[in-house]
Amino acid sequence: MSRLRYPASIVDDIQVGNGRTGTFFSFEEAGLNPDIIILSKSIGGGLPMAMVLMKKPELDQWKPGEHTGTFRGNNLAFVASKELLSYWDNGDFTEAIRYRENILKEELSPWRKNIPVWIAP
């Protein structure tokens, strides 16, 4: 296997991606631009599926059969994932997430004053 001439930046978005932070990827608001993104869990809509996104073809150094794992997907997961991705076709879903976020913030904000500072600064 040949080696890259530069280090690649990688974001593991398995636990927090696909809308869990309001944007499709959890790192979008931080302005990160990774070379490799690892997705799982929510990309399959609760079904076993994972994927590795690589920005540049030279990053994909796997030979057939070298890349294995427990969440390689199945037909039902592929169909569910395709349907879930359609929610991101425009900005409506993101706006709906932000709308609900604002409701939660507004409702929970008064409780914050009763929580010790070491829990909620």
The coarse overall form would be globular
Indicate the percent of residues in helices.
Answer: 25-40%
Q: Ranges with pLDDT <50 over ≥5 residues?
A: none
Rg of Cα set: 18 Å
Q: Summarize the helix and strand pattern as letters.
A: EEEHH
Tally the beta strands.
3
Strand order of the largest sheet: 1-2-3
**How widely separated are the two ends?**
48 Å
Description:
The protein has 121 residues and is α+β, with helices and mostly antiparallel strands. The protein contains 2 helices and 3 strands. A 3-stranded mixed β-sheet has the order 1-2-3, with no helix packed on it. The longest helix has 21 residues, at 92-112. The chain is globular and about 55 Å long.
Summarize this structure as a short list of keywords or feature phrases:
about 120 residues, 3-stranded mixed beta sheet, 2 helices, 3 strands, about 10% strand
What layout of secondary structure does this protein have?
Blueprint: E1 10-12, E2 36-39, E3 51-54, H1 75-85, H2 92-112
Parallel strand pairs: 1-2
Antiparallel strand pairs: 2-3
In short:
The chain has helices spanning 75-85, 92-112, and strands at residues 10-12, 36-39, 51-54. It is of the alpha+beta class and 121 residues long. The longest helix is centred in the last third of the chain and has 21 residues, at 92-112.
